[in-house]
Write a structure and sequence with these properties.
By secondary structure, the protein is an alpha+beta fold. It contains six helices and 17 strands. The protein is globular and about 55 Å long.
């Protein structure tokens, strides 16, 4: 029988606060798609539904919903589901193949942290100045405040990466949410992801995600967007070309600080893809 467990994923240093809520439904095989969508709508959060695999090549199958629709992949919900299975002694942390609508995702547990695989990102610059101007207007800033090229980057879904000069500017954005969906449609993107490099911690960046049409205006932590951002930073030369870790801080402007860790391979091994991980905790009742 299906059961739901509320997990907060990518919590920061204090596991009592922060992270992105993710209702995880176990043994969800008997739920219809309509039921999954309705339960997600009621929760108001991205949700993962764990099912038996459809092929012998996979150990698990997962489906993901936001309040408005089904998604191919959700990074933080996958991490949350694996964390829960490990807590219940239903997964030992060894590499596990997960069937998703976006393809096979591998999960593993390393040094006490759940990680999931993501492919090398496809990164393209947004070259139409009219779109850059519209992005600035949507974020409530002048286009001159955007530092460097705007990128569309994707490991599983396209995110639009917009570099700002500092975190104060990032956290002070006055977003016109009525424009986000139509703008993302023209960009071919599923969300705006403005960010600012940390001035005091190497390999650390703060970001905010404004999704296209999920049913809520902002995300506290977005693993897929963080993965795209890490590859975008390498594209721009803002991180090195060797194997390294990028920490993405998100949710700070929402009062729900989160920390997402992305392990990039060396550029010579880029086809291996990256690993996205972080800590999780059971949500407070």
């Amino acid at each position: 029988m299906a059961s739901v467990h509320n997990i907060r994923v990518f919590v920061g240093p204090d596991p009592k606060v922060g992270g992105n809520p993710a209702p995880v439904w176990l043994d969800a095989d008997d739920l219809s798609s309509a039921q999954m969508q309705e339960y997600t709508r009621r929760s108001g959060h991205e949700s993962a539904f764990v099912l038996k695999p459809a092929t012998p090549a996979h150990a698990l199958r997962m489906r993901y919903f936001v309040p408005n629709h089904e998604m191919e992949m959700c990074g933080h919900a996958t991490v949350g589901a694996l964390w829960l299975l490990h807590q219940r002694d239903e997964w030992n942390g060894a590499p596990v193949a997960i069937e998703t609508l976006s393809g096979t995702v591998t999960g593993r547990r390393v040094d006490g942290t759940v990680q999931i695989s993501q492919p090398r990102a496809v990164v393209q610059e947004v070259t139409q100045q009219a779109l850059v101007e519209e992005i600035a207007q949507c974020l409530g800033i002048d286009a001159s405040q955007i530092a460097g090229p705007v990128l569309n980057a994707a490991t599983s879904r396209v995110k639009t990466l917009i570099r700002l000069t500092n975190t104060a500017q990032l956290h002070g954005l006055r977003v016109d949410f009525s424009r986000v969906e139509s703008l993302c449609e023209r960009l071919g993107s599923t969300g705006l992801y403005p960010y600012a490099m940390s001035q005091d911690a190497a390999g650390t960046v703060s970001a905010r995600q404004f999704p296209k049409s999920s049913g809520y205006p902002e995300d506290a932590a977005t693993g897929i967007a963080a993965a795209a951002l890490a590859w975008g930073l390498r594209h721009l030369g803002l991180v090195g070309r060797g194997a390294l870790s990028v920490t993405v801080r998100q949710g700070e402007a929402m009062g729900s600080p989160s920390a997402i860790h992305v392990g990039l391979p060396s550029e010579a091994m880029a086809q291996e893809g990256c690993w996205v991980g972080g800590d999780a905790a059971a949500d407070r009742p």
